[in-house]
Amino acid sequence: MKTGKSLHAFSIFRNFLSRIVSKEFLIFLFFLVLSGAFWLVMTLNETYEREFSIPLRIVDVPRNVMITSDPDTVVRFTVRDKGYMIAAYATEEAFHPIFIDYKVYTDGKGHGEISAADIQRLIYLQLAKSSKITSVKSGNYTFSFNFGLHKKVPVKLLGKVIPGNNYYLAHVEFIPDSVQVYATRSVLDSIQTVYTSRQHISNFTDVKEITVDLRRFTNAKCIPSKVKMKLFPDVLTEESVEVPIEAINTPADKVMRTFPSKVTLKFVVGAYRMRTMPKNPETRELLPVGFRVVVNYKEVESRHSDKCHLFIQATPNGVRDVRPSVDVVDYLIEQR
């Protein structure tokens, strides 16, 4: 019986305490919300400045006209107004793009310019009467165009490409390998190559394929503006070949002979390039096609030495680090 009375008394006390706490909390919450609303009204009624951006587009461009140099696609400006208007402008869909009529701003001779005053006037059309534009950031609001004049120009790599250890860059392929460049005649005449944006690629051993931007020209436009680039690495191997020694600058009445008459050249080449180099069909030995080693009669004539130096005058494409097995050889000069 005593236990039942104790539980009943505890329940009454808990309900009483809960009513008191709930009442005080609700009162506290009411005043908190009230003070927060008052603070928000006061804050939003203050004057603020904030930077915004608005897209810019050129419209009504004739079909036979190609814009070769676009103006900035975004205009940045600063607005001063009450806080509640600044908050309204901060929403995602507060501003719509500014549309610039091509026919209004072109000079008909390849250029056009949009004045800062016109840009500001078009922005004001989207602002409340109480809002004030305090500044419009300077930018490029000019454009150039032509009437479809263009030419096809090859694409080349700009930058540094270094494959992994014991590999070299055997081949670079672009898809497409050429692009159409639109510009005036004088600008087109000065453009012979379109380069990629500067690349820094290293440490790869398999074929690498990436999409790269093309470098921009002033008052010219490339179509397309991006290309696919494939990099083909190849394994480096060390090879050797016997090459005849030739004498140069020898007078017509003399003959210059060297001992030995051939020299072994060691070099580094990619495995794929090695497979394409000419070989003897019977022995499969590498032929010295594209290699040239010479001795210079004028050097011998001026030095009066019993030996002459070897000079590597030519090597095939793709061959590197070429070095002879000896640097000097014996010689003999005979009268014809």
Automatic annotation (TrEMBL):
The chain crosses the membrane at residues 21-42. Keywords: Membrane, Transmembrane, Transmembrane helix. It comes from the Bacteria. InterPro entries: c-di-AMP_regulator, YbbR. Pfam families: YbbR. This is YbbR-like protein. It comes from Prevotella histicola F0411.
